[in-house]
Design goal:
This protein is mainly β and 203 residues long. 7% of the residues lie in helices and 33% in strands.
């Protein structure tokens, strides 16, 4: 990751007013509900963050805010999905040399009893976001490269299973004090490049 991106996020200003995706009602997507590659089963421990996921869960704790940092992307929905009825699409605005956004709780949450963050990402072979990193903030930020967990810009969905311990190793603080459970960020891209996001949950 470039020094510019490290500087921007070390000194990241107040992101401003939260920006939410505004998907159409589920009934308007016109497709069947997909159970996903690992559908929830009763009795399983699964935490839904209420974003990028439509399946079952044992616990849901939805962050109050989805921030789009400095207007670096816009959002849309797609029926090209892994589970549920739709996926979310982030579209690079081309306004910055970096892009990023994240889910934020107004007060810290204890995620120390959860071990793994699961997410599916897809970038088209053309006009797809190739440089993707994920981060978690718990006092300090820990950031990992999506490619380390199998992501590639090849037009295919990739399941990333990221141990929360890896975020700690990368610099995140105390998992009992998480304020930002997910940031997606990159330091390259051009206007119109896309990243598809789906099937986000913790186990």
């Amino acid at each position: 990751m470039s020094m510019l991106l490290l500087f921007l996020f070390a000194c990241r200003p107040d992101p401003g007013d939260p920006t939410y995706t505004d998907p159409p009602p589920w009934g308007d997507t016109g497709g069947d509900f997909l159970p996903g590659p690992d559908p929830y089963e009763d009795g399983e421990a699964r935490l839904s963050l209420g974003f990028f996921y439509e399946g079952g869960y044992s616990v849901q704790d939805t962050p109050e805010n989805l921030y789009i940092y400095s207007g670096t992307f816009t959002t849309d929905v797609s029926t090209d999905r892994v589970e549920g009825l739709s996926s979310d699409v982030w579209i690079h605005s081309g306004a910055q040399v970096w892009w990023g956004g994240g889910l934020t709780w107004d007060s810290a949450r204890d995620l120390s009893s959860w071990t793994t963050l699961n997410i599916h990402l897809m970038a088209p072979t053309e006009d797809g976001m190739a440089d993707v990193n994920l981060a978690l903030e718990a006092g300090t930020q820990g950031r990992v490269q999506a490619a380390t967990y199998g992501f590639a810009q090849d037009g295919e969905w990739h399941h990333l299973a990221i141990p929360l311990a890896d975020f700690v190793t990368a610099g995140a603080g105390d998992l009992t004090q998480v304020t930002v459970p997910l940031i997606l960020v990159g330091d390259t891209g051009a206007a119109g490049e896309q990243l598809f996001i789906d099937n986000l949950y913790l186990e």
